[in-house]
Design goal:
Elements lengths: L4 H10 L6 H13 L6 H12 L9 H16 L17 H22 L8 H13 L12 H23 L16
Helix pairs in contact: 2-4, 2-5, 2-7, 3-4, 5-6, 5-7, 6-7
Length: 187
């Protein structure tokens, strides 16, 4: 299931969720990228806590279950097709999209921390992308009329996508085969 931002945003509004779909997507991505996993019940509780809602409603539950499955599947997919969840051009202006990217980046760092999986100093390449995401969490559009905004947003979103995959591959080692040999994937 590809995540549908407008559908998610509508349900978020109906349930009075405090955080955006982008922020929760970032949180879950960071949590999973660190190598942590959640049961369905634990995920629903974590999502409710992060969204700052009392409980997950019947309307929100199937979306959150599919949300988790989508992020797990796309992060680990061989085609590396994982995408940062942002509203599309026809759904939001570039300044709103940049704000969602900032929320996604902050969410990613929050999820990474919440995982409790990263101890000590991360590897150099991981540390660099985490510093980039920290900077992205402060991103904003200075001039909404600047024609370069869309290109810059696309570049930042691609950088955030690669950053997420960098962290994921650093902390999610390939499965061992029964004989103990590591499975190798060719790209």
């Amino acid at each position: 299931m590809a995540l549908n931002y407008p559908e998610l945003a509508d349900q978020w509004e109906e349930d009075k969720c405090f955080q955006s779909p982008s922020a929760l997507h970032g949180w879950l991505t960071g949590f999973l990228a660190a190598g942590a996993r959640l049961t369905t019940d634990n995920w629903l509780q974590e999502a409710a806590d992060y969204l700052e809602i009392e409980a997950v409603t019947d309307g929100l539950r199937p979306l959150l279950v599919a949300f988790y499955a989508d992020v797990v599947e796309t992060l680990g997919a061989e085609d590396m097709d994982y995408q940062v969840l942002l509203p599309e051009d026809e759904e939001a202006d570039v300044d709103e999209q940049v704000e969602c990217l900032a929320q996604w980046s902050k969410g990613f760092l929050d999820g990474l921390g919440a995982s409790g999986k990263i101890t000590g100093r991360p590897e150099k390449d991981v540390m660099e992308v985490l510093q980039d995401l920290d900077a992205f969490s402060q991103a904003q559009v200075d001039d909404v009329n600047d024609p370069e905004n869309v290109q810059l947003l696309n570049e930042l979103a691609e950088h955030a996508r690669v950053a997420a995959l960098t962290v994921f591959y650093a902390y999610n080692k390939p499965q061992q085969s029964p004989a103990g040999a590591t499975q190798k994937t060719l790209h």
